[in-house]
Amino acid sequence: MSKEEPAPRLAVLGAGVMGTSITTLALIHGVPVVLVETDPEKRAGARTRVERELRTAQLLGARPDISQGELLIRASAADCRGADVVIEAITEEPGLKVKALTEVDAAVGADTALVTNTSSIPVDELAEALPHPENLLGVHFMNPSYLIRTVEVIRGSRTGERALASVERLLAALDRRGVRVGDGPGFVTSRVLHRMINDAARVVQEGRATAEDVDTLMQDCLGHRTGPLRTADLIGIDNLVDSLKVLHERTGDAGCRPCELLRRKVADGELGRKSGRGFYTYAVGL
């Protein structure tokens, strides 16, 4: 993006882990964000969570030396009006995603690109329920998105050139490299990674190794940057289980059926970093 070119206008749906992370990425690159959260409690704490992420990005050297974008926190899809791109980052539940995207589509009109940050639901499955399916594509940001510079870009069979061009302009403004992949359950990263995490958790469940031992072996022997179970804690174990369910339902792959240990952790509220405990223990809120 040239200095003369105005920053794209971005709206983000959902102030959870990924919505907050994507918002932080945009703000540190000077892109203004309207962050929409319909839940009053989550909305009340959204600015604090973003500010904490901004401080973390600063400490980790991930903030470029440019003016920070403006953040507005709003309650309704109607507040997305005027955005060039809207990124949906809500719960991995197809019905909820379709409802949110349909509401946004009605609010913004035919010129705004709609992006789903789903980790597992095919873009075409979501697009077929929308009034303007040509406006939808997938961009799978990884968490924390202000540290991970590569993203999956999924073009559905209905995705139009205008939407694709708008998203490519946004990614350029965010200094992100998009790798285009084919549509389908889990795309590339989730199709490979989430089954691996499920298998890693199953090894711990069977008592053959601790979570620390699994991660150490995967890091030191196979070069996995954080280890699969630390990654599970970062993703959010509830989000991971939801994604595995989608993969299992749409592929029939028994290896994607969430193992008992993952399901038990969700039932016990051990969701990973966001809850303070998952496979590891964390200071709450970090």
From TrEMBL:
<dbReference type="InterPro" id="IPR008927">
    <property type="entry name" value="6-PGluconate_DH-like_C_sf"/>
</dbReference>
<comment type="similarity">
    <text>Belongs to the 3-hydroxyacyl-CoA dehydrogenase family.</text>
</comment>
<dbReference type="GO" id="GO:0016616">
    <property type="term" value="F:oxidoreductase activity, acting on the CH-OH group of donors, NAD or NADP as acceptor"/>
</dbReference>
<dbReference type="Pfam" id="PF00725">
    <property type="entry name" value="3HCDH"/>
</dbReference>
<dbReference type="InterPro" id="IPR022694">
    <property type="entry name" value="3-OHacyl-CoA_DH"/>
</dbReference>
<feature type="site" description="Important for catalytic activity">
    <location>
        <position position="140"/>
    </location>
</feature>
<keyword id="KW-1133">Transmembrane helix</keyword>
<feature type="transmembrane region" description="Helical">
    <location>
        <begin position="12"/>
        <end position="35"/>
    </location>
</feature>
<dbReference type="InterPro" id="IPR006176">
    <property type="entry name" value="3-OHacyl-CoA_DH_NAD-bd"/>
</dbReference>
<feature type="domain" description="3-hydroxyacyl-CoA dehydrogenase NAD binding">
    <location>
        <begin position="10"/>
        <end position="183"/>
    </location>
</feature>
<dbReference type="Pfam" id="PF02737">
    <property type="entry name" value="3HCDH_N"/>
</dbReference>
<dbReference type="InterPro" id="IPR013328">
    <property type="entry name" value="6PGD_dom2"/>
</dbReference>
<dbReference type="InterPro" id="IPR006108">
    <property type="entry name" value="3HC_DH_C"/>
</dbReference>
<feature type="domain" description="3-hydroxyacyl-CoA dehydrogenase C-terminal">
    <location>
        <begin position="186"/>
        <end position="282"/>
    </location>
</feature>
<dbReference type="GO" id="GO:0070403">
    <property type="term" value="F:NAD+ binding"/>
</dbReference>
<dbReference type="GO" id="GO:0006631">
    <property type="term" value="P:fatty acid metabolic process"/>
</dbReference>
<comment type="pathway">
    <text>Lipid metabolism; butanoate metabolism.</text>
</comment>
<protein>
    <submittedName>
        <fullName>Putative methoxymalonate biosynthesis protein (OzmG)</fullName>
    </submittedName>
</protein>
<keyword id="KW-0812">Transmembrane</keyword>
<dbReference type="InterPro" id="IPR036291">
    <property type="entry name" value="NAD(P)-bd_dom_sf"/>
</dbReference>
<keyword id="KW-0472">Membrane</keyword>
<keyword id="KW-0560">Oxidoreductase</keyword>
